[in-house]
């Protein structure tokens, strides 16, 4: 505690407070006098903090509070008063605004104390004695309206107490958002934007700089707490997280301050939002330096960001690069000269003026022995020779707010009194009517600035973004680096020139303050358990999902025809798979099937050439040729399985295959039956051949095939096969295949073939031992065995092989069974025809039989 007070002594030293103790505004005195006043037809009240007090906040109620002591004269209040006087004089002089009506003023001191403030307003309104709360006040008050107060806490107390009297109070500097609550403060208006806007603007700015992980120190009073609450709300909307929000007050014990320091030291965020005022920061700057806490990027509210006094005190560059919102630069022409001309002050209040003069020039008018060392005031001291708060014009925007407040009152009066060239009456309107009029004023100042109040009595918020930059002389300069205007649409409100900003530690690099670095595309955010939303891990998107922006919350599922790339930031078209003519397997199968077809044709040619030889004749040449023809088709029909499935190829594939195979098998079956019949025919008394002559053979082949055609027609008519994109089998590629349409159809076609093959096999098996020199039955049995083996192995392979291999397996089965038939049935005969022509005689054929 002690060292804090030592620090404050540095601050205090600027202002001479030893002599002002209790001079004007002691609470012990029963009467409260205005500091400055002038008579007029209509009086405007004003309350400014000419002094400050030490308010002891940690008091318990058991102790009687000590009397309020007003100390340390604040020259700012004199500047505000001068501004008010200037505005009133200007209106008094004007021939267009309130012509003929003279305005007076009464300016009171609040001592920055709520108690004193309430006393002051009571003195200002005490003309009104109507105590019935149900009746509006009809009797005019002492003053028409009030300008002030500076501090939000005092404004709240005042606005609360005079709210029921409907006396308007227009503040130039109280920014607390709480004052916008018109149920609590019905007669409170202001010309400074509410902290609500500032908090929002600050949050938007913080977001703009990408700082999502920030700390905050707030003044432990209404200003800090409600400003912080508004900031927190806006921040959470914008996705900014607060690592900490610490209350601070300049009367805090050392312990409490140390705890704050510890918390800041252990934090990871690099940005501190300061909802503080100049006094708090002056202390904090020293404490920060003592604990070596530097390099934080400060973000400030208008309460301190534009304060040259604070800037002078920050010798340790704790606040270097601070950035924040300040009321945008406005001037009132002629005001500066007026303020520096102290004559109006002198004429408005002698006692106040004396105190002012003494404090200003550190001299005294009263000669006392105690003060031998102090100079005696001559009254001729030159203002141009001193430099202090009074000569500093950096609060011009706030002066402008006072000026606008006075003008708002004047415009409302002008309207209400029905003034044109002259004012018909100078009678004060009743407060309620006046307040209603005041809320609706809309005018332009001589600088062209529009003044109006919104439904909450607040003006439109316009801020300048101020950056503390160090000059060569190691002093701070306030550089405007951007603007914020709440009357613009949300996205255009903030305009910042990033290049002109100098950040903390005199860096050109914008500091980063995030809990977790942003997630690159291809990943998504996953909030860490128990942490704020700004702390997250980046989790790569799953297969088939992408995120193409940084910091995405969800991975997006790719469209069904698309799949994620390896970086998971783009959906790429899935690879399409089918057995094509271009790939090796497709080419191989094509070649094999064409070779098969050619072989069949060559055999057919050989057979045709030797059609008159016994071996061809004996073997029922008609069925042989039909078989060869159908085998050619078998080989060729495998080609319909290769290439991109189309509507036609899908339909053709299975039906062609089914019909041709049935044709094939029925030929073989015919041959088997012929062998059986031929044997019977050799037996005496049989004329079996008559029963199965060529016409019957043709008929049976035709009818067996027709059954398959019928099956196919039914299949196609009910649910035909169609090309189909199989997305399920593989996630990352599409298989183009022929959907069977109806499984029953497919298996019926295959089953019929199987049935015929089985029947054929059984018959051939029965006939295999029959004596014949060239008994085909052996070969047919063998070929049917191959055929059945191939197709039986086909089924599991077909069901289990993935993608295009299903098709390949099917082709393979077709080719294998076709070759099986071709080679088993025709190769032995070709061998005899070409290589052993001596055996190809009728005698040989018959001989065998004879031997048997
Ligand atoms: C207003 O003007 C009148 C005369 O025009 C003067 O008597 C009065 O003092 C002026 N009031 C102020 C506050 O300057
Ligand atoms: C008002 O008029 C008086 C006399 O004409 C002049 O001295 C004074 O400077 C004027 N005040 C303002 C604020 O214009
Ligand atoms: C403060 O910190 C700086 C760098 O971080 C270091 O060089 C310096 O010694 C520290 N001073 C004290 C008093 O801890
Ligand atoms: C007056 O000033 C002198 C030197 O300037 C100093 O030594 C002396 O103590 C001062 N006296 C008082 C009463 O402050
Ligand atoms: C991200 O993907 C969506 C759709 O997936 C697309 O509309 C958008 O343009 C993409 N954005 C970028 C930056 O690629």
TrEMBL record:
Record family assignment: Belongs to the G-protein coupled receptor 3 family.
Record-linked Pfam families: 7tm_3, ANF_receptor, NCD3G
Subcellular localization, as worded in the UniProt entry: Cell membrane
InterPro entries: ANF_lig-bd_rcpt, GPCR_3, GPCR_3_9-Cys_dom, GPCR_3_9-Cys_sf, GPCR_3_C, GPCR_3_Ca_sens_rcpt-rel, GPCR_3_CS, GPCR_3_vmron_rcpt_2
Gene Ontology molecular function, alphabetical: G protein-coupled receptor activity
Major location (coarse): membrane
Keywords on record: Cell membrane, G-protein coupled receptor, Glycoprotein, Membrane, Receptor, Signal, Transducer, Transmembrane, Transmembrane helix
Domain G-protein coupled receptors family 3 profile residue range list: 585-849
Bilayer-crossing regions: 585-610, 622-643, 655-679, 699-718, 746-767, 779-799, 811-835
PROSITE patterns membership: G_PROTEIN_RECEP_F3_3 (PS00981), G_PROTEIN_RECEP_F3_4 (PS50259)
Lineage: Eukaryota, Metazoa, Chordata, Craniata, Vertebrata
Protein name listed in UniProt: Extracellular calcium-sensing receptor-like
Its membrane topology: Multi-pass membrane protein
Record-level GO cellular component terms: plasma membrane
Domain of life: Eukaryota
Residues of the signal peptide: 1-22
